[in-house]
Amino acid sequence: MSREPELRTDPALLPVLDELRRREPIFHRPEFGATRTDHLAMTAEDFWEVGASGNRYSREHVLDVLDERQRNPQPDPYETGDFHCRQLAEAVYLLTYTLRQGERVTRRATIWRRDADGWKIVFHQGTVVADT
């Protein structure tokens, strides 16, 4: 018996998966916005996240960190893969994927909500993959 779940996206959700895949990793896609105003627009008012460190971060803290990154940009090459989408409620979706940044590998989970004015990030979590 495998400890890994079988992650399959419902074929009806493939268009949603495609839309959300293009937006991840969040805050790394300048075509969807790079300013504080853009980031405010793409996050729900009650957005928060759990970082790969295990720490919880408020929306304001995340926005402050993103502002600092804009002032002092650093190269951040990455690869994404293993995308999976699951509908949680009407217009609410869980997107999971793997992010590779050099030697660091994390599993990511973002809860997205489609509002009248577009996609909003409700929650995000990153978890470092332990050596197996």
UniProtKB/TrEMBL annotation:
UniProt cross-references to InterPro entries, sorted A to Z:
DUF4440 (IPR027843), NTF2-like_dom_sf (IPR032710)
Q: Which domain of life is it from?
A: Bacteria
SUPFAM superfamilies for the chain: NTF2-like
Domain DUF4440 as annotated: residue spans: 41-121
Q: What is the designated name of this protein? A: DUF4440 domain-containing protein
Q: Which organism is it from?
A: Rhodanobacter hydrolyticus
